[in-house]
Amino acid sequence: MSKVYVKDHDKLRQIGTFKNGIFYSERSSKKHFFVNENGWGIDRKVIEGLLYKGLRFVVIKDTDDNTFYYCTGRRFNDYSREIHHPPHDKQLVLPIHLWEADNVYPEELLQPQG
Question: What is the chain's percent helix, strand, coil content, to nearest 5?
Answer without folding.
Answer: 25, 45, 30
